[in-house]
Amino acid sequence: MFQNTKCECGHQNPVGTVLCESCGKPLDEALLKDENALLEMRYDGVARRSQKANPHLVDRIWNFFSSVKIAVYLIVITLIGAAFGTILQQESTIINLTERSEFAAYYKEQHGTFGVIYHALGLSRTYESWWFIGLLVMIGTSLVVCSLDRVLPLYRALSKQQIRKHLQFINRQHVVYSGELTQDKQEWLDGFAKELKRKRYRVWREDGALLAEKNRFSRWGPYINHIGLIIFLLAVLGRSIPAGHMDQYLTLYEGETRQIPGTNYYLKNDKFTLDYYAEEELASNQKGTKVVKLYETKARLYECTDACDDPTREPVLTEVKQHDIRVNSALAYKGLKVYQNSFQEKVRFISVHATLKDKDSGTDIGSFDLKMNQPEEEYKLGEYALRLIDYYPDFGLDEQTRPMTKSRDPNNPAFVFRIAGPGIQDKGEVYVYFPMPSEKSKYYETILNESFKQRGDNSGRFSIQVDNPIVDGQMNNIEYSAFTTYLNIRMDRAMPYVWVGAAISMIGLIMGFYWQHRRIWIRIDGDKLALGGHTNKNTYGLRADVAGALGKTGIAVDPKTLDNRRNER
Amino acid sequence: MGRYRKPVQYIILAVVLLIGGYAIGNSLFSKSVVLTKGDKPPGFRLADLNNVVHDMEDYEGKPLIINFWGTFCPPCRNEMPALQHQYDKWKGQGLELIGINLSEDKLTAESFIRQIGVDFPILLDKDKKTERKYGLKQYPTTFFIAPTGEIQEVVIGGVLTEEEIDKRIERLIQTKS
Fold it and tell me: What CA–CA distance (Å, rounded) separates B69 from A33?
């Protein structure tokens, strides 16, 4: 379609211009038809940057993203998509499962057929799905393109405004006044300008014409908001870079130190505390129930400083932080955060203080600490030497009735020692020792030692045991963990950028919401005064400004009568 | 501004394509850790029972079997003799066999190995790190790695008989690097 873009004032406007960039005369055909209709003042009537007569492919893509309508659609689709992700639990929140098949089974078990469909559609990973990320990328693109296409022409239009505007431009504003000027033209304009200046307007004058303007900066609010949103979006997308993001779980029994996978840090659980409210602290309807007062993991964070990747040596650890991790009180260190997640009440032996006894003489030869994890292999007790020759953390028998361990955890540990010393045969004597004070363990210990005796491997002279294992119902000479704590370890390097983005976005919103860009144009032709006012919001405020200034300069008007829209009603 | 309009458009669209492509691509390729045929096995550095370090790189270009095992796993225990026999049979032709113990105490692993009479290297995993890297779900799991450095087959669970191992080794040896 051919469009004449040259205004009668002689200014050549780009394609798509609604109001002449120079004099403000309407160019758009729809606006030309009705001379009394209000003007479309969006972006001051300038053309969007990329509007072209013959768009190419790249222009078409650009124009697609430049459309606010498309942006709104994208946002609505993203909202609906995001809502789908909230119907069922997301995969990322399920601990311990990693494989697709495991998740499929989980959703089937938990939610039946609906779960199967939900998982098959990939909605169990909504926020990591290609289409969701794709929508975010498109929104981001739309933000950049929309803003760029509008802010640059708008900036240009606002920074070189013509003071004398076309009469139609003035008379078709929201706030208008026209009348005969009985006073001296220059004097009246001086007074009017002074009044507006007092209201913090900036005033420009040009031979019988005036332009007053205030709070232009509020027009940049939306674009600053968009910059903030773009930073926000980039930060969110940046979380997919593995180095910047971590969300994992670590289980630790009391006294255990483990490396946080993928980091140089080690975490130790010194003690886990589970505390309940006392009966008198509870509300009347809670009496008799157990209400948890405290979940606490006394934790230490270590950094590995030496031998970190040397499998032949134990890593050298340096303590960097100590913290009592409670609900809402995470351990935080250099962007790493450790939260209390869960716990399990499970007794696990850590070490026992065992004594070697000579049954013949009824004397104690000596005692030693025996660890359940990585036990020492040599023990020196007086003249006797104990050598640990086998260790089964969870004793059992295999199909060939060979002793084996049933798991890697010390649920029923069995230690096989070879004892050497005075009065013992050259090859030593072999004894098995079960520290667990259960009947079954002690039964195994007895028959195994008996069979060793029959084979001639021991004389039955020695025994290994813990003295006074139970005192007042408490385990004695036994170090154990009563609880296993589950800690959630998180790192999110994107978070500071998310906050910065959010802050910038907020600044933009405040700029745009709490201030208004107000402009007043005046044109005096002979003794005819024409006044037009425009604001992007709050016309009441602008009308009050105009009526006030007119009143002070001898033209009494009711602010309501300045409203141009009253003509339509 | 006018004459920069086109380049600016192209630059912005290119940046969008780059960032967007990366982000979407990332989400398309799920990060499954389960290794299958054709994958490159992840590297490791582990100590053996004599405290000597073995690096995955030491075995590059050789037909290699990696067997993950634990003394707590009956099928692992049962297939150990078969693995040793096959190792004896094929080591002259360059076969390498590594048993990676599933984070047990050294003593526990060592005494079982002594009982069976295994003489291929037994490496000790720590805190399940290597096991996790290889995405193990069941024990034993055995990886047959061709001289090209690619996994030719993964056998999960179940006891491998001598014939089954033999057949696979033959295929491994035949694969040229």
Answer: 86
Cross-chain residue pair A58–B72, CB shorter than 8 Å = no
CATH number at residue B146: 3.40.30.10
Whole-angstrom CA distances from A57 to A62, A74, B2, B9 are: 8, 21, 19, 12
Residue pair A199/A533 in contact by the 8 Å Cβ criterion: no
What part of A 131-150 touches B (C-beta under 8 Å)? Answer: 132-134, 136-138, 140-141, 144-145, 148
Which residue of A lies nearest to B16 if distances are taken between CA atoms? Answer: A141
pTM over 0.90: no
Question: Domain spans of chain A?
Answer: 48-157, 163-208+517-567, 216-239+494-515, 242-346+482-492, 347-479
Task: Kindly report, residue by residue over B90-132, the tens digit of the pLDDT.
Answer: 999 889 999 999 999 999 999 999 999 999 999 999 988 999 8
Quickly count: other Cβ atoms within 10 Å of residue A240's Cβ.
Answer: 17
Residues of chain B with C-beta less than 8 angstroms from the C-beta of A237: 19, 23
The DSSP secondary structure of A139-185, one letter per residue, reads HHHHHHHHHHHHHHHHHHHHHT--SS--HHHHHTSSEEEEEE--S-H
- Angstrom distance (rounded) from CA A433 to CA A36: 103
Backbone Cα Rg of chain A: 41
Nearest neighbour of A392 by CB, restricted to B30, B108, B137? B108
- Please write the tens of the pLDDT for every residue from A64-96: 999 999 999 999 999 999 999 999 999 888 877
